[in-house]
Amino acid sequence: MSEATHIHPGSVGHEVAHDDHHHGHHEQSFITKYIFSQDHKTIGKQFLITGIIWAIVGGLFSVLFRLQLGFPGQSFPILETFFGHWAKGGTIQPEFYYALVTMHGTVLVFFVLTAGLSGTFANLLIPLQVGARDMASPFMNMLSYWFFFMASIVMISSLFIQTGPASGGWTVYPPLSALGQASDGSKLGMDLWIVAMALFVVSSLLGGLNYIATILNMRTKGMSMTRLPLTIWALFFTAVLGVLSFPVLLSGLILLLFDRNLGTSFYLSDIVVAGEVLPNEGGSAILFQHLFWFLGHPEVYIILLPAMGMVSEILSVNSRKPIFGYMAMLGSLFAIAILAFLVWAHHMFVTGLNPFLGSVFVLLTLLIAVPSAIKVFNWLTTLWRGNIRLFPSTLFAIGFVSLFISGGLTGIFLGNSTIDIHLHDTMFVVAHFHIVMGVASMFGMFAGVYHWFPKMFGRYLNATLGYVHFWVTMIGSYLIFWPMHYEGLAGMPRRYLDKSIWKSFNQFGDLDKMITVVSIIVFAVQLMFVFNFFYSIFKGRKVTSTNPWGANTLEWTTPINPGHGNWEGEIPEVHRWAYDYGKDGREFIPQTEPVGANESKH
Amino acid sequence: MEVVMNQQRKKIHPHKFTLWVAIASILMMFAGLTSAFIVKSNLTGWRNIKMPTVFWYSTAAILLSSLTIQVAIRSFKQREMKQYRSMIAWTLVLGVAFIVLQYFGFKNLWEQNIRFSGSAGAGQFLYVIFGLHALHVIGGAIALLVMFLKAYVGKVKLYSSVPVEVMATYWHFVDILWIYLLVFFIVIG
Ligand code: HEM
Ligand SMILES: [Cu+2]
User: Fold this and answer.
1) Shortest CB distance from A216 goes to which of B15, B17, B31?
2) Residue A209 to residue B132, Cβ atoms within 8 A
3) What pLDDT, on a 0 to 100 scale, did the predictor assign at position B67?
4) A225 to each of A557, B3, B17, B27, how far by Cα in Å?
5) Domain presence at residue B48
6) Is position A3 within any domain?
7) Is residue A601 part of a domain?
8) Is residue A290 scored above 90 in pLDDT?
9) How many independent structural domains does chain B possess?
10) Which of A51, A245, A308, A582 is the most exposed, fewest CB within 10 Å of its CB?
11) Chain B residues with beta carbon closer than 8 angstroms to that of A137
12) Residues A371-416: pLDDT tens digits?
């Protein structure tokens, strides 16, 4: 254990970083190598595997509540076997349903698509692609994972307490979340939720600080900012968004904790609950929404940007063409990062927000469509007339672009405050954000896993399973989420347990059944991917060359299974940008190759 | 252009840089809280408070400690280790004094019947905001203690001034943050 907290003095700065690969001097035990590791690559894998476990849990939750939505009131005796009084008589109880919805959102948004996605790829790729031996502070980096781990433990433990986990939606709006007497899900489960999220915030701050410092301070010789691969730029903006917005969520949660446990009135005013008149006065529930969405909106881009970065990289590598409009890609990332802080109130159009203020937020919200469109245009032009290699990673990257277009377009509906009055809190919103954020970012993540698996484990994922995985997930996702737009346009509310009393929604009964069945199939295919993942770690086809995809970036100049310190000799010097594909008759020119005398400009 | 960038990025140590980003992050938390304060102070049921005078003494303590830690850096750089140690010790003492004085400030407010429960007011915010600030000072004080012990019992000779500078920057930050919060409460609370 004393080994674990030992800080590598050698990992900071270039000059000293050298001793890092003379690792002979202290034998690494299993614990320092795989558990309390300070190697960014191992930490990345830890984030990935924890994220995968969370994804299975969170995905399973959605299958369960889809059962209720597709087959309301029907009894599935097996559920009672597993969940006891939560599924009395085999039907999902209302409290259980709401807990499932809440935990599904929380787990997927934060634990899978934030920690599992940025945590994995920022850790793996930043030092490898900027040319550093490790992060600016490997020790803080290790702490970042372990705070995430503790957050996970606390969140999981809330599933096993008598009153159940937090329920009330992943946005935990007060007053419901502030009043234990209001529902079971607002009791201990809610406190655990807050504590878990506080730990989570600490984890992402520790990580984010490191990512930023590493990108800005630890680049190898010649790696100017405009030679960075777009993955790194995207991860950089992701970290900036996180570092500036997560603390605001934390402040909101601290106030919530006070209201819950010490009787303060930050969010509470004039409330009668279960016949009891509460003394709280002067609080504002809307205040919480402001604090929450000030994080919440940047958060959706924290989820999306890493996927965008990886997709840019993978599309360029696999169409054997330079990325189209590198500077435009950069500029649009920057614009998205700025605008992400200025649009949070579009989640609050119907809270009684001043309509004039609302119109300002409409304008700013719709402005995001501009950089988004630029990015889409550039991805498509990167693909245009390329020598496309349709690996599973390429397919997932193309799928990402398709989903981002579909979901971005529905954002424009929602971004108009007048239309949002009709669409707010309907299934339309669910369709919008699942397509644009949930599924799209998952696709980005899958693309990244298929592409960088050889770097992580020295083996390939099975491609045939990869193709099956792609096509079923792609078709399935559209079958699941596309029809929800129609439901939402017809006014069907989200988060409702049972809508059968509304005669007008009965027309959607079969549709809902179809969605549920497809969800189960898609979920099963994800399990197949998980199988492929773990099987290939041990039994996959071995990688035999250092640069299996013929890519330009620095991670492919390391040994097939790099040790801590990444490069055996000197860190290579960089002479060009990362996107010299198909140039002067050559398929690719690695960043480490000096610019030739007669070389054409890009 | 590139050469310039290459040289520039060698100038700031990654740990110092990390601290600056962390400071930005902490500032966002307090920005969130103080803007919540402004929003709420316009709603019904708001109660203002009278600032206990103890907070002026704690202000003096923390201002003075910024001075001592600055002297500590200078002595470290001039390798006057004796003075360095005593200055770190003084900073630590002043830091602890600050915390203690804050405690008396809270106590004073509590005795004025400004409590957690019941209707909203500046007092509830004050407990949360000053409390969180105090936590940041305590964190700094613990780091100072470690630094102090290292300077006394550590057998390794310390040459790099980076840790001291990082410490000092953080300490000045909690000092300035305190001034901001105090002024904020006086002007708006
Ligand atoms: C053109 C771009 C976009 C616009 C104009 C837009 C607009 C909106 C609006 C107005 C809402 C609120 C709907 C309501 O609750 O009534 C919303 C919800 C949401 N959007 Fe977008 N959006 C866009 C793109 C995105 C992207 C790229 C992401 C994520 C990567 C995203 C994630 C979300 C999420 C998660 C919600 C729902 C949160 C919840 O209530 O649970 N949106 N969007
Ligand atoms: Cu938003």
Assistant:
1) B17
2) no
3) 96
4) 20, 12, 17, 27
5) no
6) no
7) no
8) yes
9) 1
10) A582
11) 14-15, 18
12) 999 999 999 999 999 999 999 999 999 999 999 999 999 999 999 9
Vertex B162, ends B158 and B168: CA angle to 5°? 110
Which residue range(s) make up the domain with B35? Answer: 2-42+53-187
Domain-located, residue B111: yes
Asked whether residue A24 is domain-assigned, the answer is no
pLDDT value at residue B49? 84
Tens of pLDDT, residues A145-202: 999 999 999 999 999 998 999 998 999 999 999 999 888 889 999 999 999 999 999 9
**Relative to the alpha carbon of A433, which ligand is closest?**
1
* In the predicted structure, residue A19 carries a pLDDT above the cut 50: no
Q: How far apart are CA A92 and CA A89, in angstroms?
A: 8
Distance from C-alpha of A99 to C-alpha of A541, rounded to nearest angstrom? 42
At A34, the pLDDT band (50, 70, 90 cuts) reads confident
* A442 close to B (CB below 8 A): no
Residue B47 lies in a domain: no
Which residue's C-alpha comes closest to atom 3 of ligand 1?
Answer: A411
Number of domains in chain A: 1
B12, B39, B118 ranked by CB distance to A279: nearest: B118
Share of chain A above pLDDT 90, in %: 80
Domain holding B114: CATH number? Answer: 1.20.120.80
Q: Rounded to an integer, what distance in angstroms lies between the CA atom of residue A256 and that of residue A519?
A: 35
Q: Considering CB atoms only, which of B13, B29, B44 is closest to A248?
A: B29
- Residue B145 in domain: yes
Residue whose CA lies nearest to ligand 1 atom number 20:
A433
What pLDDT shows up at residue A228? 96
**Strands A276-277 and A581-583, sheet pairing:** unpaired
**CATH number of the domain within which A576 lies:** 1.20.210.10
Quote the pLDDT of residue B170.
97
Within 8 A of B26 by CB-CB distance, chain A residues are 247
Which residue bears the tokens 């035999």? A544
pLDDT at A35: 82
**Confidence band for B40, pLDDT divided at 50, 70 and 90:** confident
ipTM of this predicted complex? 0.91
Distance of CA B47 from the midpoint of ligand 2 (Å):
34
